[in-house]
Amino acid sequence: MENFKIDVDADGIAMITFDVPGRSMNTLTSGVMREIPEWVERIKSDEGIKGAVLTSGKTSGFCAGADLGDMAGGMLAGGSLQDAFDAGWRLNGALRALETCGKPVAAAINGLALGGGLELTLACHYRVVGDSPKIQLGLPEIKVGLFPGGGGTQRLTRLIGVQAAMMAMTEGKSFRPNDARGAGIVHEVVPVGDEVEAAKAWIKGGGKAVQPWDDKSFKLPGGGPYHPAGIQNFLVGNAMIRKQTYGNYPAATNLMKAVYEGVQLPMDAALRVETRYFIKTLMTPQAQGMIRSLFLSKQELDKGAVRPAGVPKSDPKKVTVLGAGMMGAGIAYVQALAGIETILIDRDQESADKGKAHVEELLKKRLSRGQIDQAKFDALLGSVTATTDYDLIKGSDLVIEAVFENREIKADVTKRAEAQLAPGAVFGSNTSTLPITGLAKASVRPEDFIGIHFFSPVDKMMLVEIILGEKTGQAAIAKSLDYVMKIKKTPIVVQDGRGFYTSRCFGTYVAEGLAMLEEGYAPALIDNIGRMTGMPRGPLEMHDDVALDLSVKIAKQTKEDLGDAYVPLPGWKIVQTMVEDLGRYGRKNGMGFYDYASKPKTLWKGLSDLAPVTIADSTPEMVEDQKRRLLFRQAVEVARCWEEGVIDDPREADVGAILAWGFAPWTGGPITYIEQYGLKAFVEQADAYAAKYGDRFAPPQLLRDMAAKGETFYGKFVGKQAA
Question: Residue 466 falls within a domain, yes or no?
Fold first, then answer.
């Protein structure tokens, strides 16, 4: 076998080492799934084997789950439902054979075990895990539009009960070792390195070769659907899933169906039920889009898919951050975690120290969770120097400017920092709106000047938008991407332009909410419809989050830059009045579209005076139309960015939209949304919205031409930038 090695010791215990060649992490590939039945049969039929221990040969983890690209393509390759079921059953059948092989099998979990990796261990009779904060155990498939399809829905539920299992699976929750033991997912937590010996000790001590659910006396923890207490899990759970997903995620609904039906059946039948629902989910456009964007495309971008070829790899060791506010301090924190020496500069020592204090606060959270020890904490905090001294920039591979969004301030710090930089070092501006080419005019080396746009809060937001100025060189692009990959963020590369890609397209969502407000829609209706699209928040509450006064500043700057070409957005006067006349700036001062003095927040009663309500009632048809309107407005702007050359890779467009501003993940991103809607149908619907609401919905000529030719973005453009 290529992926597993078997050694039988003097006690008759077979050591099965899982080690996929050529990969840093084990995954369940088609080859792995073909080989599992081979070693299961060896355990079962070899009389010299008294029991088995399954562990990983990798230092990086036990198993990260299924190789979704390989798995999804393989399961749907046959073309018929029977072929798909048979392919889906392959793993389930193999794991069922494992747990019924008649000999005790223990899993020695010496690294993270996620998705199919955890499901593999759940089919073992005993689970031992190393006591390390780096180890995570969980079933996160819901995050890519799927649910556990290797027996996870049935085994986890039978181990910890319906309520706990459903919460873990619908949230994609990961457990640390001791939490997993407390929940009943693993049996034993031992010091790192002792996993195998502990597993062997269990077998030698008379480990039982029968799973709890195969024992005639087994009872489902908490009860099933016909238990007085158990039925509540399904009644309440069904309502909670609807509240959380608004029906946008078939995986969540099918997961509950698989659990509901499965717990009423013997395990063999339950696993067949799970497989049927898994294949049904895999065939949905939501799963197809999410797998492509949030798994395959994201992995490609994380590994540098759009990095310029022929530029030597760089490894930034020292990086300076200008500006120690929340953004700059957040950047300093992720750099410290990545082992980068950080100089954190602000205009006075008090401000710089405040920034470092924020880094310390975030590190203390990791310390309290056991993710780092005191020595590591001290070293990480010590790698950040808070100062006002620009001389300390010397030796930096990169400078990231994160000061106030003002051209004059940015120009000043650019000149002061560049005076300390060696040739080839990169200067990156963390601006969200100001064109990079304009900012680069303050630079004496524009070929090394680039935009590096982080999102707040930096420690949680996974995307970084790299923006190219007119004179940005290939080396600067490559070095910036190397930096982003080192701090473990996902990069996208876009061309210069007002608002670039993410800020420009995100702005259309909150702006369309304003347009609806001006049209007379009730504020509560607007935000409820926004949430129902799958966006993380409604457009009005999201506008509060980003700050109304910031919108006013950006609008004034845009008007100044564009002159007579500037066209105010619908509803703009409402925001201007709220900010300039009423001092309502949004969440940051507790007053915006909502009042935040009490919890939960409440809609500001005075809003009806600025925007009288004429549409307060809804119908299902109206709600669906307005949901589509909000998504279309964003998708049309993405298509315009494409036509203007701001972005040219569908992977970056989709992944960037989901990670940056939360474009409804169930769609797979705006480009996938357009493609699954159908380009021809999308153009027709956009034209209808343009006739009703204005030219902001008019599809660009690019979309019309592609629709006429039957082309798709992924078919025509994918990999274009990397090539």
Answer: yes
